[in-house]
Design brief:
The protein is an alpha/beta fold and 495 residues long. Helix content is 39%, strand content 23%. The chain has a 7-stranded mixed sheet, sandwiched between helices. Strands 10-9-8-11-12-22 form a 6-stranded mixed sheet, with helices on both faces. A 3-stranded mixed sheet has the order 1-5-4, covered by helices on one side. It is globular and about 80 Å long. The N and C termini lie far apart (78 Å).
């Protein structure tokens, strides 16, 4: 069927892209599987430390000339890359669905967001401008210029295999730096395709490098003395180690980590408009995103409103079509891996042990199509969830919604702020007063007002607070330009 057209026809043997060349690795090889089919689609190497070091060396060799390249010329490489990405839009999107499992519409959304990063980075001649002032004293002028630093490492998460590296790499290279990207070995094919288009766009050899691998490759980047900074997206547990190691080795760090996002529904919310946004938040990407909804808080003591809203949410959740994401009719794909499904299943069992009421059990999935159930779950809904339950506190990273109640807005905000995470929070309301109070007081880096997924556009930073973020400057927007540059101050007087 045309709707299930797969761009990957044979098992792909993945190589590293270093110094403008595709180089085989001597490291152990592991399988990349299509989670919907449980079928191997690629073989990816776990590169050695020496191979990572070679990539860093290639980037370091390319840096002096790339740094001297005028920003407008660097931007032209990005313009060409943007056009190539547009031309390969559908192919790239289908690759993401095959290697990750998300629906084709979700993959298209990811591709679009990634392209937008490249698009914004093309504005680097303006974004990188410094500032100056004449006559700070008699006959003396002062200038601030932003200069690139050298080589940066990018260690992304598996949940957005195409987009996450593009939160950083276009901005790093636009500002005159060189990059070494280590994709997740779970779904690295998107980055192979991206590197092919980078090469076609005319980036000089060594500016953009991709080295595949696992923990050893990541450690090599973290410990390399010539890496000036690391951009990491992943779990809080690993993120803390990354941040610590960057501190020990004098590197800059952006560490975007785990989340436990709350979505509040006020008594004046419009269920007809709120429910679709909530479904997308909780079950989009099968719940595998740091902006996914996790705890659904119904605010107020109106029992009739509570029952009506929760019943409607459970009913709508039960009707989502689950299956292979290349089928245009599918609304939720599988988990990315068998391990991911097992982790979420254990959380569901834990929630039952803690006394939460299981309103919708997704452990025995109904799948649209004849596919192996190994990675599939259906939407799951818990009711009567208390804030001190493990399922309410820890990141599940799967299609599980926890419903809890709050007496009023103050009580609801207190529940949100008690969490050790602070990635995102949203409120659904018709009241400007409620909305302002919420956004003013809530401790979260990305705040949504009648928005289920509070995802910043490329020209705004990707926020995060508490254990959801470590660092000072965030990815995207003006923050990431500042992260990839150093400010140099010039004070001059002529006699």
């Amino acid at each position: 069927m045309a709707v299930l057209e797969e761009p990957l026809k044979e098992v792909m043997k993945i190589k590293n892209y270093v110094g403008g060349e595709w180089i085989g690795s001597k490291g152990k090889v592991t399988d990349v599987k299509n989670p919907a089919l449980c079928k191997t689609i690629a073989k990816v190497p776990l590169s050695t430390r020496d191979e990572v070091n070679a990539a860093v060396e290639a980037a370091g060799d390319a840096f002096p000339e790339w740094r001297r390249t005028p920003p407008i010329t660097r931007a032209r490489c990005l313009f060409r890359l943007k056009e190539l990405l547009e031309g390969h839009f559908e192919e790239i999107s289908r690759i993401q669905t095959m290697e990750h499992g998300k629906t084709i519409d979700e993959s298209r959304g990811e591709t679009r967001r990634g392209i937008e990063m490249v698009e914004v980075a093309t504005g680097i001649p303006s974004l990188m401008m410094g500032y100056n002032l004449e006559d700070i004293a008699t006959g003396i002028d002062e200038y601030l210029v932003h200069q690139p630093l050298g080589v940066f490492g990018i260690i992304p998460a598996f949940n957005f295999p195409f987009m996450i590296p593009l939160w950083f790499a276009p901005f790093a290279t636009a500002t005159g730096n060189c990059v070494v990207i280590k994709p997740s070995p779970r779904d690295p094919i998107s980055q192979v395709k991206l590197a092919e288009l980078v090469e076609e766009a005319g980036f000089p050899p060594g500016v953009w490098n991709v080295v595949h691998g696992g923990a050893e490759a990541a450690s090599a980047l973290l410990e390399h003395q010539d890496i000036k900074g690391i951009a990491f997206v992943g779990s809080t547990r690993v993120g803390k180690e990354v941040y610590k190691k960057c501190g020990e080795t004098g590197k800059r760090a952006i560490v975007q980590a785990s989340a436990k996002n709350f979505l509040l529904v006020m008594p004046d919310a419009d269920p007809r408009r709120s429910l679709p946004a909530l479904l997308s938040s909780f079950y989009g990407n099968a719940g595998q995103r740091c902006l996914a909804g996790s705890n659904l808080v119904i605010v107020g003591e109106d029992d009739a409103f509570y029952k009506r809203f929760v019943d409607g949410f459970v009913d709508a959740s039960s009707k989502l079509r689950v299956g292979y994401g290349l089928d245009e009719s599918i609304q939720m794909g599988p988990m990315q891996s068998v391990d991911g499904k097992e982790r979420v299943t254990k959380f569901i069992e834990r929630g039952m042990e803690e006394g939460a009421k299981l309103r919708l059990d997704g452990r025995k999935p109904k799948i649209s199509g004849d596919y192996p159930p190994s990675c599939f779950l259906n939407p799951t809904v818990f009711e009567d969830v208390a804030p001190d339950m493990e399922i309410a506190k820890e990141e599940i990273f799967g299609p599980v919604a926890n419903v809890m109640r709050a007496k009023n807005l103050d009580d609801a905000i207190e529940k949100v702020n008690r969490s050790r995470y602070g990635n995102a929070a949203s409120i659904f309301t018709s009241s400007g007063k409620y909305a302002r109070e919420f956004k003013y007081r809530v401790q979260a880096g990305n705040v949504g007002i009648n928005i289920g997924v509070a995802a910043p556009m490329a020209f705004f930073p990707f926020g995060g607070m508490k254990d959801s973020f470590f660092g000072v400057l965030h990815g995207q927007g003006r923050d990431v330009i500042r992260f990839f540059t150093e400010s140099k101050i010039l004070i001059q007087r002529w006699f």
